[in-house]
TrEMBL record:
Pathway: Sphingolipid metabolism; Lipid metabolism; sphingolipid metabolism. Keywords: Glycosyltransferase, Membrane, Transferase, Transmembrane, Transmembrane helix. GO terms for cellular component: membrane. This is Hopanoid biosynthesis associated glycosyl transferase HpnI. It comes from Sphingomonas paeninsulae. InterPro entries: Ceramide_glucosylTrfase, Hopen-assoc_HpnI, Nucleotide-diphossugar_trans. The chain crosses the membrane at residues 6-27, 292-316.
Length: 381
């Protein structure tokens, strides 16, 4: 048992080193400077919606308050005339009378992925050559469009995606979810990109030209995939183009109101990643240095060296949290919550391997090894 405990402590130390690499990468984010000759082309932003969210109006408004001289079209799509997001879009139109805001209401289905079906329906109204697909729960800074279009202007770039931090908008559980994004998901992506192991393309932002989307087969190609954002990125890379990841962080508005909702959301993310990259997901075990270190220290009797390893792991977690919180200007949850959040993430990591079912907006699906969805069991929405 002592050998096993020592192995866990070694794994914890490696994980702590990995967290510090992620912290250094975040610390070295370069300040943005727009090119003097940057062309601000017309942009269409696509926002697939499904019901209301605590800060939906405020989040959407950030995409309209942009320091961007080019034309901007915002298309919001819902799949039912009874969708509770519609009144919010009408309020948005009233608040921004000069903005080009289009609402698309269509129940047409093109596959098992409802978000992709929504986006396909919305595309019929898109007028501009640059498309930005962005989830409804994102908020951005006023230089967002300038930075995105600037990155997309590079000749070898086929798409642009963005990292994001968490913000809890619906109470304690949503704040705990925000910690998971800021202190677990974000460092893992930063580490993966720094080591050349990750090729992210995320629903926070997928900016690409309409011609590029057409060249990879259009959105219909991804209508049955759960990880549609990842698949779009892979298709673009397969075409010979890169997916740029600018040094900027968006804000993800977490809205979980219960432990059950938090678990369902994070299991869906975990199982999607695990199906697409089993080895990579399994290897991310080391990114849980605090719980692994505590288990190892318990086995080894909490002697000074094991306790030091645990202490350094905790310091690394706090450092990541402070860096992200400093950039955001707010803290989603107290630092004292870090151990609880770490043990929850570790438990969900283990749970991921015991099944392939995911819950998405009230419907249970099974994810096959290619990331395709099949209906598992209908539930009441």
């Amino acid at each position: 048992m002592v050998i096993f405990g020592s192995a866990l402590l070694l794994m914890s130390a490696i994980g702590t080193a990995c967290l510090m690499i992620a912290a250094i990468r975040l610390y070295r984010f370069k300040p943005f400077r727009a090119a003097l000759d940057q062309q601000c082309e017309a942009v269409t932003i696509l926002k697939p919606l499904h019901g209301t969210e605590p800060q939906l109006f405020a989040n959407l408004s950030t995409f309209l308050r942009q320091d961007y001289p080019g034309n901007v079209q915002l298309i919001c799509g819902v799949q039912s005339a009874a969708d509770t997001a519609i009144p919010i879009i009408e309020t948005l139109r009233t608040a921004h009378p000069n903005a080009d805001i289009v609402l698309v209401v269509s129940a047409a289905s093109h596959g098992t992925n409802a978000k992709i079906s929504n986006l396909i329906n919305m595309l019929t109204e898109a007028r501009h050559p640059i498309l930005i697909l962005s989830d409804s729960d994102m908020a951005v800074a006023s230089d967002y469009l300038v930075r995105i279009t600037g990155a997309l202007a590079a000749t070898d770039v086929g798409a642009v995606t963005c990292l994001y931090r968490g913000r809890g908008d619906a109470g304690g559980w949503s704040r705990l979810a925000a910690m998971g994004i800021s202190q677990h998901f974000l460092p893992s992506v930063l580490l993966g990109t720094a080591l050349g192991l990750a090729t992210p393309c995320m629903g926070s932002t997928i900016a690409l030209r309409r011609a590029t989307l057409d060249s990879i087969g259009g959105l219909g190609r991804f209508a049955d995939l759960l990880a549609d954002d990842y698949a779009i990125g892979q298709a673009i890379r397969a075409s010979g183009k890169s997916v740029a990841l600018p040094d900027m962080l968006l804000t993800h508005a977490c809205t979980e109101t219960s432990l059950k909702a938090l678990i369902q959301q994070e299991l869906r993310w975990n199982r999607t990643i695990a199906q697409l990259d089993k080895a990579g997901f399994a290897g991310s075990l080391v990114l849980h240095p605090l719980p692994i270190g505590l288990v190892g220290a318990a086995i080894c009797g909490f002697s000074p060296i094991p306790l030091m390893i645990v202490g350094v792991a905790l310091i690394a977690r706090i450092k990541i949290a402070l860096l992200v919180d400093c950039g955001a200007g707010n803290r989603p949850a107290p630092l004292l919550w870090i151990p609880a959040r770490d043990f929850l993430s570790f438990a969900l990591f283990i749970w991921t391997f015991f099944g392939r079912a995911v819950d998405w907006r009230g419907t249970a699906f099974t994810v096959d090894p290619t990331g395709r969805l099949s209906t598992h069991q209908d539930k009441t929405r």
